Amino acid sequence: MRAYVDTRAGMAEDGWSAAWTFDLAHWGTCGQGPDDAAALADLAERCGLGAGAAEAIDVVERVDRAESGDETVFERDLAPASDAERGATLAVLARTRARTLDLVRAAPPGVLAYRDPGRRLPAYASWHTVEQLAFHIADTESRYYLPLLGLPARERAGDVVTELEKSGAHVRSVVSTMAPDLSRVWPDHGSWTSVKVLRRLAWHERGELDVLAGLVDQAVENPG
CA torsion sign, 205 to 85 to 141 to 6? Predict the structure, then answer.
């Protein structure tokens, strides 16, 4: 498997590395860890490659945010997005949104307001409760990723279930018709392309959904 390493990407934790694959079978999969080797090991595990597989991964490109700045792109991100990549993204978005909505619709107010006091977040993050995390998923896709390519954002709905429903439909509609070769560079937000937004969309909710499900379980086990 071919991998692309973003050294010191700082996504899950400040200073951590991220390892991505663009293989369609694992589209949108990202491994993270305190250094490149740990990120590659996490990627191998997430892709089901088995113990010791990280050493067999072919790292074809590395970028280092300490040198290139925030939100870099790989050379691979500069290619036009393929129909298969678009389709893989749409499939992931539909599948994960259905699971997120199932969790949130079933959650009573006490669960939505639950906050794990032991959970560590990056300094910039403010999505502590179940409801805040669910809103964060929609905020990221509809009001961060899409506008960074000059694509239409949408206003946030007042309640979280409506927001997840409306945002999910909006993003899937935009992705279905977006040009395959969009590219934007922002002084404060780095470089973005069609391929980068597709892989980030396919990654983001899946990762947050694991956290969301864990928080819901904790809230149920620790009522009040």
Answer: positive
Choose one of 49, 69, 89: the last residue of a domain.
69
Question: pTM (2 decimals)?
Answer: 0.93
Asked whether residue 47 falls in the same domain as residue 127, the answer is: no
Claim to verify: residue 103 and residue 9 sit in the same structural domain:
no
Domain that holds residue 19: 2-69
Here the tokens at position 70 are: 């925030």
Q: Where are the beta strands (DSSP E) in the chain?
A: 2-7, 17-20, 30-33, 58-64, 183-186, 190-193
Q: How far apart are alpha carbons 198 and 181 in whole angstroms?
A: 11
- SS3 label, residue 183: strand
The answer to whether residues 47 and 96 belong to one domain is no
Please report, for residues 13, 45, 133, 174, the alpha-carbon distance to residue 90 in angstroms, rounded to integers and kept in the order given. Answer: 28, 24, 21, 10
Nearest CA among 104, 125, 124, 76 for reference residue 219: 104
pLDDT mean values, one per 10 residues, the chain (224 residues):
90 86 96 93 90 80 74 93 98 98 95 90 85 97 97 96 98 98 92 97 95 94 77
